[in-house]
Each structure stands twice: as structure tokens, then as C-alpha cells.
Amino acid sequence: MLAIDVRKRLRAFELLASFEAPPGVTLVVGPSGAGKTTLLRLIAGLLRPDAGTIALDGRTLTDARTFVPPYRRDIGFVFQEYALFPHLDVGANIAFGLRAHGVPHGERERRVQRMLERLEIGELARERTSELSGGQRQRVAVARALVTEPKALMLDEPLAALDAQTRIRVRGELAAVLAGVGVPTLLVTHDASDRGAFSGRTIHLDAGRATDGQIDEC
């Protein structure tokens, strides 16, 4: 369970968010500028809140005395533009987090191979990411986030970089992958059509406000 109760001011904008996200997909929807990306960055530790708490499976990540850095939060993050390393091939991109965590070479290779097979991108292992399609880059970004076996997963508009036709296909593929993840997963979107593809809950975020009373069951 992911528990969030935070406040963050950015210039004239203030985010107030209080909710719990159980295992499974929770969509975070709202207009541009509503604070969706800010919320994910707070949870991942890429921003510090001005006040409040964030806890994951009973472990405090942020409060008045505690701030666990991003690399120790066990949270995977898929950025909107995927943030892949163009100088590395697909396999090395996926292995990056494992290498940073000091996973031994043999175990790292095994886990990367399993993730390549799970995302059905094994044939791309030695390709440079600059040579991939949008849908393929998304799979690599998801694989890189999942290979470290995170306890929560954040996805910031993972379909936004795709053209309309590709988006329809990849949306279904992503939904199938996330259905088997089994950890609290927040997926930011501004596209109402995404809601029908992902089973779970929806947080409505508007002008920086989100509470339990604004969470609907899908």
C-alpha cells in the first residue's frame, strides 16, 4: 500500500494530495497543470514536499524528520519521454538500475533476459534506442523500471509520445503488462480513453487538489 498525504508549493501553484493506492493500477487524471507530474516526483523522491508524509508498505519515505533518497525508495519511474540512454543498447539500458544497485553480473544478465522475454523485445537487446519505434522505446522504459523489482511504479503519461494509431495498440499491451505487476502503480494520463483500458481506481486531480473523496472505483 502506498499512502500519500503531502503539500507542495511551486511558485503560485500548491499541490495538496491525500490518498492511498493499493496494489494495482491507479490512474491519475486531470488537465494540464493540475499537478500530476509533481505528485509522481514527490512520491519518487525527486522533489521534497513542504509538509506531509509518504509511506510504502508501512515504511516511511518522507515525513518531518525522514527523507529517503530516490535510489533507496524501491520505486520504478517511467518518464513521459522515456529518458533512455542513447549511447547504450537496449540490454544495457534495462540493466542500468541493476548495475547501480550492485547486482552481480550473472544475476544481472539473467534478470535482464527474463525482462526482455516478458516484454517480448528479446530481438532488440543489441539495438540502440535511437533506432527503435515509439512503442518499442516504451517497452524498454517499462522493462528498465520493472527489472529492479520495485515495490511501487510511477508512469508519467507513458502513451503521450506515441501517434494515435500506435497509442491504441500499445495501450492494450501496457495494460496487460501492468496487470501482472502486483504493486501500487500510479499512471498519469490526460486522455479519458485510457481509463477503460486499465482496471483499477482513478484519482481526479484538479488545480492541485486530490483527496479520498475524489477517488472513484473503475
Provide a compact summary of the structure:
With 218 residues, this protein is of the alpha/beta class. Helices cover 29% and strands 27% of the residues. The protein contains five helices and eleven strands; from the N terminus they run E-E-E-H-E-E-E-H-H-H-E-H-E-E-E-E.
Plain-language structure description:
The structure is a single chain. 29% of the residues lie in helices and 27% in strands. With 218 residues, the protein is of the alpha/beta class. The protein has 2 domains: 1-74 and 150-218, 3-Layer(aba) Sandwich (Rossmann fold), CATH 3.40.50; 86-149, no CATH class. A 6-stranded mixed beta sheet has the order 6-7-8-3-9-11, sandwiched between helices. A 5-stranded mixed beta sheet has the order 5-4-1-2-10, with helices on one face. The longest helix has 16 residues, at 164-179.
Sequence stretches where pLDDT stays below 50 over 5 or more residues: none
Order of helices and strands: EEEHEEEHHHEHEEEE
Q: Could you state the CATH homologous superfamily of the largest domain?
A: P-loop containing nucleotide triphosphate hydrolases
CATH topology of the largest domain: Rossmann fold
Shape: globular
> What is the number of beta strands?
11
The radius of gyration is 17 Å
Q: Provide the helix percentage.
A: 25-40%
